[in-house]
Write a structure and sequence with these properties.
It is a single chain. The protein contains eight helices and seven strands, in the order ββαβααβαβαααββα. It has about 250 residues and is α/β, with parallel strands linked by helices. α3 packs across α4, α4 crosses α7 and α5 crosses α6.
């Protein structure tokens, strides 16, 4: 069994008027947003969620569902909007879908959205499958260690992941629904794709409408979970721009 990595929600809720709300993807972790959260100015609060079924073993994860994720996320949005004047949303992978659906179907009223590796078109590569296997098996390599740090669902053996059909079917349903909702996005959105993403196809960028409100970026030397320093700086700069008083 691999060494246990702690995955938990974390926050800074100091009473500022602006909040950055972070949502990870399927099997993902709040730990993926540590660098972005740490770079936020002191006058901006943040909340990095841990979605239901995550942060523990495969047993808990395989009983979770898209309905649970959406209900938890939508409830959080309502609670945060009662406390903050502005909410900027940052999602990774499936987290992007939750943000899109909340904004278009439940009037989340995000001031801006930053979508990282939005999985509207997926392509499962051999590298992704190998990383999952090596992560669960405890293979020692720098890439595997980074992949493991981004995966909050712990398996005793790689074969356990084969029992997770239910949550992944839920992911596919979220993808289909989010695609239909894209034309209804009416807040500024920045969509970021990694040049070497092993799960999401670059064709997903074309699914977003051509609009002055939608910005599309490709960041260098990065995968689905692992971002280069240059990519992280670019993403941080985009987020900083969203937080300017002008909203620009």
């Amino acid at each position: 069994m691999t060494n246990f990595i702690r995955h938990a929600a974390y926050q800074r809720l100091s009473g500022a008027d602006t909040l950055v709300l972070f949502a990870h993807g399927i099997q993902g972790s709040p730990n993926q947003f540590t660098a972005l959260a740490a770079a936020l100015p002191e006058n901006v609060d943040y909340l990095c969620l841990l979605l239901p079924g995550h942060g523990n073993s495969v047993r808990e994860f395989r009983h979770s569902s898209a309905h649970q994720w959406r209900a938890y996320f939508d409830k959080t949005c309502r609670e945060m909007h009662a406390r903050y004047r502005r909410i900027v949303f940052v999602g990774h992978s499936m987290g992007c879908l939750l943000g899109i659906l909340a904004e278009t179907e439940h009037a989340a009223h995000f001031s801006e959205m930053l979508l990282l590796a939005c999985p509207l078109r997926i392509r499962i590569t051999r590298r992704y499958l190998l990383n999952n296997w090596r992560s669960a098996a405890g293979t020692a390599s720098a890439e595997t260690a980074m992949f493991r740090a981004a995966n909050s669902v712990h398996a005793r053996h790689p074969i356990e992941y084969l029992s997770c059909i239910r949550p992944y079917l839920g992911l596919l349903r979220l993808i289909r629904t989010a695609r239909r909702c894209l034309p209804n996005l009416d807040c500024p959105v920045t969509v970021v794709h990694s040049d070497d993403d092993e799960i999401v196809s670059s064709k997903m960028l074309a699914l977003f409408p051509s609009s002055e409100r939608i910005t599309k970026l490709i960041v260098p030397e990065s995968g689905h979970f692992i971002y280069s320093e240059a990519a992280t700086r670019r993403i941080s700069a985009e987020l900083a721009g969203m937080l300017k008083p002008s909203g620009g």
